[in-house]
Design a protein that fits this description.
Elements lengths: L2 H31 L3 H5 L6 H8 L1 E6 L2 E2 L3 E3 L6 E2 L1 H13 L4 E6 L5 H6 L5 E6 L2 H4 L3 E2 L5 E9 L17 E5 L3 H9 L4 E5 L2 H9 L5 E5 H9 L5 E2 L6 E9 L4 H16 L2 H18 L3 E4 L5 E4 L1
Helix pairs in contact: 9-11
C-alpha cells in the first residue's frame, strides 16, 4: 500500500471511530436525560394522596404511649387504639392493598419528623394557632379531649385560681398543648417538663409536684395503673380539638382528608369508635366527661 493510500485508510478509520464516539456520547446523554420509570411515575409536586395511591403506602409519624388513643397491644406489640382504627379506615377508603408504615418517635419529635420529610402526616394533635403556622389541620377533629388537673394526694386545692401561685409546681409532658395552656392559665406557677405523661403524673402522685394538666385518656390510664392523684373538683379545665396534621402546600390532600374525616363524622363512625375505646370506661369507671365528634364536627358532650 502506498503512503498516500495508507494515510487515506487511517483517516477513514479515525472518522469512523470519531463518529462512533459521538454516537455513543449522544446515546449516553439521551439516557441520562431520560427519566427512570420511578421518576416518570412520580411527577414534581405530587400530592400525598396521589403518592399513597401510586405507592400503596402511607407513612405516618406516631407515638404509642397514649392509650386508649394509640398504643401497642401488649400481647402482639401491634399498633392499636382509637386513632389506629381511623388510619386503617383511611387506608381502606383510599383503595385495596394500601398499607400503613408507622414511624415511631416520642411525641416531642413528631413535628420535626414531619418537617424533615421522614413521614407524610402525623397522628392527630391538638389544634393550636402556633402549630397552624407550621402545617395544616383537618378542619373536623379526629376527637375532642377534655383536659383535667390532677393534684397530689393530700392537696386541699378546690378551684383553678388556687393554683396560680409562686409556690405551686406543675409537672407536664414536654412539647404538649397542655403545657402551653397551663403556662398561660397559671402564669405565677413553676413548671417542670417530662418526656412522658406517666413521668409527669408520677411526679404529682409522689408529692414532688403539686399538679399536672393532662388529657382525660392520660388520667384514665394513670388511675387504671393505681396512681394516687386527685382531680380538681370543678371538673374539666378546658376542651381540646385534636386533628390530623400535615405539611402545608398540598390542597388536594388536605381537601380529601377534610372530606374523609367529615364523612365519617356524619355517618357516626367517629362517635362509635370513641364510645368503644374511650367513652364507657371514662364515664362509668371514673365519672369523667366524654366528648364525641358529632355529624358536623360539633362536640357531643355526655357525663
Amino acid at each position: 500500500m502506498t503512503d498516500l493510500n495508507a494515510t487515506a485508510a487511517a483517516s477513514r478509520r479515525s472518522l469512523l471511530l470519531a463518529g462512533g464516539l459521538v454516537g455513543a456520547g449522544a446515546a449516553l446523554a439521551a439516557n441520562l436525560a431520560r427519566p427512570t420509570a420511578a421518576q416518570a411515575q412520580a411527577p414534581a409536586n405530587e400530592a400525598l394522596i396521589d403518592k399513597w395511591i401510586r405507592t400503596k403506602k402511607i407513612t405516618l409519624g406516631y407515638e404509642f404511649g397514649t392509650p386508649p388513643m394509640q398504643y401497642r397491644d401488649p400481647t402482639t406489640n401491634e399498633p392499636a387504639g382509637y386513632t389506629i382504627e381511623l388510619t386503617k379506615l383511611l387506608a381502606a377508603d383510599l383503595g385495596e392493598g394500601i398499607t400503613i408504615d408507622y414511624v415511631e418517635v416520642p411525641f416531642g419529635q413528631l413535628f420535626s419528623l414531619l418537617e424533615s420529610g421522614r413521614c407524610d402526616m402525623i397522628e392527630p394533635v391538638t389544634n393550636l394557632p402556633a402549630r397552624a403556622l407550621r402545617g395544616d389541620f383537618t378542619p373536623i377533629p379526629a376527637f375532642y379531649a377534655p383536659v383535667y388537673v390532677g393534684l397530689k394526694p393530700n392537696s386541699t386545692v378546690q378551684k383553678p385560681e388556687d393554683l396560680n401561685a409562686e409556690n405551686i409546681r406543675f409537672a407536664t409532658l414536654q412539647g404538649t398543648s397542655q403545657l402551653a395552656v397551663a403556662r398561660r392559665t397559671f402564669p405565677k406557677a413553676q413548671f417542670a417538663s417530662f418526656p412522658s405523661a406517666t413521668d409527669a403524673i408520677n411526679e404529682v402522685a409522689s408529692g414532688r409536684a403539686d399538679a399536672t394538666v393532662q388529657s382525660s385518656s392520660s388520667i384514665v390510664r394513670a388511675l387504671d395503673a393505681g396512681a394516687r392523684i386527685k382531680l380538681l373538683p370543678t371538673g374539666a379545665l378546658y376542651l381540646e380539638s385534636v386533628s390530623f396534621f400535615m405539611r402545608q402546600g398540598d390542597p388536594r390532600t388536605l381537601n380529601w382528608m377534610s372530606n374523609w374525616i367529615g364523612y365519617h363524622a356524619s355517618i357516626g363512625t367517629l362517635a362509635t369508635l370513641y364510645e368503644r375505646f374511650v367513652g364507657t370506661a371514662s364515664r362509668e369507671k371514673y365519672k369523667l366527661q366524654t366528648v364525641a365528634v358529632g355529624p358536623a364536627g360539633q362536640p357531643i358532650r355526655s357525663n
